[in-house]
Amino acid sequence: MSVTVVVPTYNEGPNVAELVRRLAAVLPDGGDVLFVDDSTDDTPAIMADVARTAPMPVRVIHRTEPVGGLSGAVVEGLRAAEASGSQWSVVMDGDLQHPPELVPMLLRRGDDADADVVVASRYTGAGDAGGLDGWRRKAVSKASGLLARSMFPLKLRNVTDPMTGFFAVRAGRVDLDSLQPRGFKILLEVLARTKLAVVEEPFVFGERFAGESKASFANGVRYVQQLWALRFGRLSPFAVIGAIGALLNLAILAGLQRAGMHYLPAVIASNAVTIVTNFLLQERFVFRDLRDGNVWRRFAQSFTFNGTEAAVRTLLLWWIVEKTVLHPELVQALLIVVAFLVRFVFHAQVVYKPHRAAAPQAASAPDGDAPFSSTAQGRVQ
Ligand code: GDD
Ligand code: MN
Hints:
By secondary structure, the protein is α/β, with parallel strands linked by helices. Helices cover 50% and strands 10% of the residues. The chain has helices at 13-26, 43-53, 69-83, 103-113, 134-151, 186-193, 217-229, 235-258, 263-285, 295-323, 328-351; strands at 3-9, 31-37, 58-62, 88-91, 117-121, 167-170, 198-202. A seven-stranded mixed β-sheet has the order 3-2-1-4-6-5-7, sandwiched between helices. Helix 1 (13-26) packs parallel to helix 2, helix 8 packs antiparallel against helix 9 and helix 10 (295-323) runs antiparallel to helix 11 (328-351). The longest helix is centred in the C-terminal third of the chain and has 29 residues, at 295-323. The relative contact order is 0.11. The chain binds guanosine-5'-diphosphate-alpha-D-mannose and manganese (II) ion. Residues 93, 95, 97, 208, 213 line the site of manganese (II) ion. Residues 8-10, 12, 36-38, 66, 69-70, 73, 93-95, 97, 132, 141, 163, 165, 184, 213-215 line the site of guanosine-5'-diphosphate-alpha-D-mannose.
């Protein structure tokens, strides 16, 4: 079987020899390594040395004018791997946080399941995010993964770790020209733009062999830009309906008060009405293809959650305003944004949770994750 291991690198000199040594020990005949290197130090010279003595082919693309950062490097590597005729490409980091010994397992799993993509996941089975520095990065990784899965519930239905940098791709299945690589999250870009048959394999994210992480706050900003370019999947129509509901809520509140009702029952009545209208609009326009089983079950879950959320939010508002010097308006605005995201994730992950496909199912899966018809560019869906 022919496989190219695509390794994006930025100043990873001290890791190169060890990575190649461990890969050479496990790769099938016909395997090679392709570094896509944006280094500004002596890494290219080290790679040239290692390539001379390695027991398998080692290729290097050194980019003097890098575009798209880590993701851009990965796409360039995938393109070169396909051009050289490899049946599979495996993308992995160059710092040994991704165990090279897992590569043959990814390939076997992909062939057995006849999948297009095999994702090495930290969040399934015996997988673990151990080597991710600090609880903050772990929390960010988890939360951003959950949000992404809520935005693309069908395309990511089999994917517990859309943020991983370790995955295998079968040649010819991903439309590389459709990708808009930026930042660190290339797998999300691949999976959100193309309908693919995906399976997962658990793995333990290890410690770096040498050097330190190149992730930065700027990568977080680029992640948001990327979601923007992907049009936030289902989050966008969910937000539009939420905004319509908020306006409706205010209108009913004003109307009832003008009709002489006390503001307290008026608030409760307008909330109840908009919780119901929001539910109906979301059933129709956001989660239409994910409606499953009993509408009353979904309604009960949605109504209970939204009612509880409104009550909890009011209590939190009171508590934060009493305990801190923050302005009530500011606190309320922040709470509304957070509550909106939590409400979205709850609806995608609980009320409308798609069943995990037992086998890869891209071909038979509904078109997916595009509640509103796609735009003229038609890129995303
Ligand atoms: N060519 C290129 N260009 N490579 C880069 C660049 C770049 O601009 N920036 C980083 N890399 C390389 C690094 O040299 C390393 O081989 C790999 O990309 C991952 O970078 P790290 O700096 O080690 O990232 P990390 O360990 O903090 O993050 C990893 O885990 C994340 C999930 O939590 C990566 O695998 C991410 O892709 C992943 O999302
Ligand atoms: Mn790393």
